[in-house]
From TrEMBL:
Domain of life: Bacteria
Protein name: TetR family transcriptional regulator
GO molecular function (one): DNA-binding transcription factor activity
Pfam families in alphabetical order: TetR_N
Gene3D superfamilies: Tetracycline Repressor, domain 2 (1.10.357.10)
InterPro entries to which the protein is assigned, alphabetical: Homeodomain-like_sf, HTH-type_TetR-like_transc_reg, HTH_TetR, Tet_transcr_reg_TetR-rel_C_sf
Source organism: Kribbella jejuensis
Keyword tags: DNA-binding, Transcription, Transcription regulation
Domain spans labelled HTH tetR-type: 17-75
Stored PANTHER family: HTH-TYPE TRANSCRIPTIONAL REGULATOR BETI, HTH-TYPE TRANSCRIPTIONAL REGULATOR RUTR
The entry's DNA-binding region: 38-57
Length: 197
Protein backbone atom coordinates (compact mmCIF):
# COMPACT_ATOMS: atom_id res chain seq x y z
CA UNK A 1 0.00 0.00 0.00
CA UNK A 2 1.38 3.40 -0.95
CA UNK A 3 1.33 6.69 0.92
CA UNK A 4 0.84 8.52 -2.37
CA UNK A 5 -2.54 10.23 -2.64
CA UNK A 6 -4.88 8.90 -5.30
CA UNK A 7 -4.38 10.33 -8.78
CA UNK A 8 -7.88 11.73 -8.60
CA UNK A 9 -6.90 13.92 -5.64
CA UNK A 10 -4.48 15.96 -7.74
CA UNK A 11 -7.04 16.19 -10.52
CA UNK A 12 -9.66 17.45 -8.09
CA UNK A 13 -7.29 20.07 -6.71
CA UNK A 14 -6.50 21.32 -10.21
CA UNK A 15 -10.20 21.47 -11.04
CA UNK A 16 -10.89 23.37 -7.80
CA UNK A 17 -8.13 25.86 -8.62
CA UNK A 18 -9.54 26.34 -12.14
CA UNK A 19 -13.02 26.85 -10.74
CA UNK A 20 -11.75 29.47 -8.29
CA UNK A 21 -10.05 31.43 -11.07
CA UNK A 22 -13.16 31.14 -13.30
CA UNK A 23 -15.36 32.47 -10.49
CA UNK A 24 -13.05 35.43 -9.82
CA UNK A 25 -12.83 36.27 -13.54
CA UNK A 26 -16.61 36.09 -13.87
CA UNK A 27 -17.02 38.29 -10.80
CA UNK A 28 -14.58 40.83 -12.26
CA UNK A 29 -16.62 41.07 -15.46
CA UNK A 30 -20.05 41.12 -13.82
CA UNK A 31 -19.19 43.53 -10.99
CA UNK A 32 -17.91 45.93 -13.65
CA UNK A 33 -21.28 45.72 -15.41
CA UNK A 34 -23.44 45.80 -12.29
CA UNK A 35 -22.18 45.90 -8.66
CA UNK A 36 -25.53 44.45 -7.53
CA UNK A 37 -25.19 41.29 -9.63
CA UNK A 38 -26.25 38.14 -7.79
CA UNK A 39 -23.83 35.36 -6.89
CA UNK A 40 -26.08 32.99 -8.85
CA UNK A 41 -25.33 35.04 -11.96
CA UNK A 42 -21.62 34.93 -11.18
CA UNK A 43 -21.76 31.14 -10.84
CA UNK A 44 -23.61 30.86 -14.15
CA UNK A 45 -21.04 33.03 -15.96
CA UNK A 46 -18.24 30.94 -14.44
CA UNK A 47 -19.99 27.73 -15.54
CA UNK A 48 -20.04 26.30 -12.02
CA UNK A 49 -22.85 25.39 -9.67
CA UNK A 50 -23.85 27.71 -6.79
CA UNK A 51 -22.53 25.12 -4.33
CA UNK A 52 -19.08 25.29 -5.91
CA UNK A 53 -19.07 29.07 -5.69
CA UNK A 54 -20.06 29.04 -2.01
CA UNK A 55 -17.40 26.43 -1.19
CA UNK A 56 -14.76 28.85 -2.46
CA UNK A 57 -16.43 32.07 -1.30
CA UNK A 58 -18.87 31.56 1.60
CA UNK A 59 -20.01 35.21 1.55
CA UNK A 60 -20.49 37.90 -1.06
CA UNK A 61 -17.81 39.99 0.65
CA UNK A 62 -15.32 37.11 0.32
CA UNK A 63 -15.85 37.08 -3.44
CA UNK A 64 -15.75 40.88 -3.80
CA UNK A 65 -12.50 41.03 -1.87
CA UNK A 66 -10.93 38.20 -3.90
CA UNK A 67 -11.92 39.93 -7.15
CA UNK A 68 -10.48 43.24 -5.95
CA UNK A 69 -7.19 41.64 -4.88
CA UNK A 70 -7.00 39.77 -8.19
CA UNK A 71 -7.58 42.97 -10.18
CA UNK A 72 -4.94 44.96 -8.33
CA UNK A 73 -2.39 42.14 -8.53
CA UNK A 74 -3.00 41.78 -12.26
CA UNK A 75 -2.66 45.54 -12.80
CA UNK A 76 0.49 46.00 -10.73
CA UNK A 77 2.23 43.09 -12.43
CA UNK A 78 1.22 44.30 -15.92
CA UNK A 79 3.39 47.43 -15.97
CA UNK A 80 6.15 45.91 -18.10
CA UNK A 81 3.61 44.52 -20.57
CA UNK A 82 1.83 47.88 -20.87
CA UNK A 83 5.14 49.71 -21.35
CA UNK A 84 6.20 47.21 -24.04
CA UNK A 85 2.88 47.37 -25.89
CA UNK A 86 2.32 51.12 -25.91
CA UNK A 87 4.02 53.51 -28.30
CA UNK A 88 5.37 55.69 -25.49
CA UNK A 89 5.87 55.67 -21.73
CA UNK A 90 3.35 58.50 -21.46
CA UNK A 91 0.72 56.43 -23.29
CA UNK A 92 1.47 53.48 -20.99
CA UNK A 93 1.13 55.75 -17.96
CA UNK A 94 -2.28 56.96 -19.17
CA UNK A 95 -3.55 53.46 -19.99
CA UNK A 96 -2.39 52.09 -16.64
CA UNK A 97 -4.06 54.85 -14.62
CA UNK A 98 -7.28 54.63 -16.62
CA UNK A 99 -7.41 50.90 -15.84
CA UNK A 100 -6.75 51.60 -12.16
CA UNK A 101 -9.56 54.16 -12.28
CA UNK A 102 -11.96 51.55 -13.66
CA UNK A 103 -11.08 49.15 -10.82
CA UNK A 104 -11.55 51.85 -8.20
CA UNK A 105 -14.92 52.83 -9.64
CA UNK A 106 -16.02 49.21 -9.31
CA UNK A 107 -14.76 49.18 -5.72
CA UNK A 108 -16.72 52.34 -4.90
CA UNK A 109 -19.82 50.90 -6.54
CA UNK A 110 -19.66 47.88 -4.26
CA UNK A 111 -20.30 50.12 -1.26
CA UNK A 112 -20.12 48.65 2.22
CA UNK A 113 -18.74 45.31 1.06
CA UNK A 114 -15.22 46.76 1.00
CA UNK A 115 -15.32 48.50 4.38
CA UNK A 116 -14.68 45.56 6.70
CA UNK A 117 -11.44 45.19 8.62
CA UNK A 118 -10.32 42.37 6.32
CA UNK A 119 -11.05 44.47 3.24
CA UNK A 120 -9.19 47.47 4.59
CA UNK A 121 -6.22 45.24 5.36
CA UNK A 122 -6.19 43.96 1.77
CA UNK A 123 -6.53 47.47 0.36
CA UNK A 124 -3.65 48.67 2.56
CA UNK A 125 -1.54 45.72 1.41
CA UNK A 126 -2.09 46.76 -2.22
CA UNK A 127 -0.53 50.19 -1.60
CA UNK A 128 3.12 49.07 -1.77
CA UNK A 129 2.85 47.15 -5.08
CA UNK A 130 0.76 49.97 -6.56
CA UNK A 131 3.38 52.52 -5.59
CA UNK A 132 6.14 50.30 -7.04
CA UNK A 133 4.22 50.03 -10.31
CA UNK A 134 3.77 53.81 -10.51
CA UNK A 135 7.47 54.30 -9.77
CA UNK A 136 8.31 52.14 -12.80
CA UNK A 137 5.95 54.19 -15.00
CA UNK A 138 7.44 57.44 -13.69
CA UNK A 139 10.99 56.23 -14.37
CA UNK A 140 10.01 55.33 -17.94
CA UNK A 141 8.45 58.76 -18.48
CA UNK A 142 11.55 60.46 -17.06
CA UNK A 143 13.77 58.42 -19.40
CA UNK A 144 11.50 59.38 -22.30
CA UNK A 145 11.58 63.07 -21.38
CA UNK A 146 7.83 63.46 -20.82
CA UNK A 147 8.31 63.92 -17.06
CA UNK A 148 10.99 65.69 -15.06
CA UNK A 149 12.97 63.68 -12.52
CA UNK A 150 12.29 63.98 -8.81
CA UNK A 151 8.52 63.44 -8.67
CA UNK A 152 7.35 61.23 -5.81
CA UNK A 153 5.20 58.30 -7.05
CA UNK A 154 2.94 58.67 -4.00
CA UNK A 155 2.35 62.32 -4.90
CA UNK A 156 1.50 61.26 -8.45
CA UNK A 157 -1.04 58.70 -7.24
CA UNK A 158 -2.70 61.42 -5.16
CA UNK A 159 -2.61 63.79 -8.13
CA UNK A 160 -4.08 61.23 -10.51
CA UNK A 161 -6.91 60.41 -8.11
CA UNK A 162 -8.96 63.02 -9.97
CA UNK A 163 -9.67 60.23 -12.47
CA UNK A 164 -12.01 58.36 -10.14
CA UNK A 165 -13.98 61.53 -9.42
CA UNK A 166 -14.93 62.03 -13.07
CA UNK A 167 -18.35 61.01 -14.40
CA UNK A 168 -18.59 57.59 -16.03
CA UNK A 169 -18.97 57.32 -19.79
CA UNK A 170 -17.43 58.98 -22.82
CA UNK A 171 -17.69 62.50 -21.42
CA UNK A 172 -15.66 61.49 -18.40
CA UNK A 173 -13.02 59.86 -20.61
CA UNK A 174 -12.68 63.01 -22.73
CA UNK A 175 -12.47 65.25 -19.67
CA UNK A 176 -9.95 62.89 -18.09
CA UNK A 177 -7.66 62.93 -21.13
CA UNK A 178 -7.83 66.73 -21.16
CA UNK A 179 -6.87 66.98 -17.50
CA UNK A 180 -4.10 64.40 -17.94
CA UNK A 181 -2.48 66.69 -20.51
CA UNK A 182 -2.58 69.48 -17.93
CA UNK A 183 -1.06 67.14 -15.36
CA UNK A 184 1.79 66.22 -17.71
CA UNK A 185 2.44 69.88 -18.45
CA UNK A 186 3.06 70.33 -14.74
CA UNK A 187 5.10 67.14 -14.39
CA UNK A 188 7.54 68.32 -17.05
CA UNK A 189 8.81 70.81 -14.48
CA UNK A 190 10.99 69.64 -11.60
CA UNK A 191 9.07 69.31 -8.31
CA UNK A 192 9.63 71.69 -5.40
CA UNK A 193 12.37 70.64 -2.99
CA UNK A 194 11.39 67.60 -0.97
CA UNK A 195 10.34 65.49 -3.95
CA UNK A 196 11.51 61.88 -4.00
CA UNK A 197 12.52 60.16 -7.20
Amino acid sequence: MTDEPPATYGTQRKAAARNRVAIIEAAHELFAENPAVTLTEVAKRAAVGPGTLYRHFPTREDLILAAYEHDIERLTTAVDEVLARQTSAKAAFIEWFETLCAYIRIKHGLGEALHSAAAQEAISASWAPTTAAVRKLVEACVAEGTMAPGHDPVDIIMLMSFLWRLPAGDAGVVQGRRIIETVFSGLQAEPPSGGVS
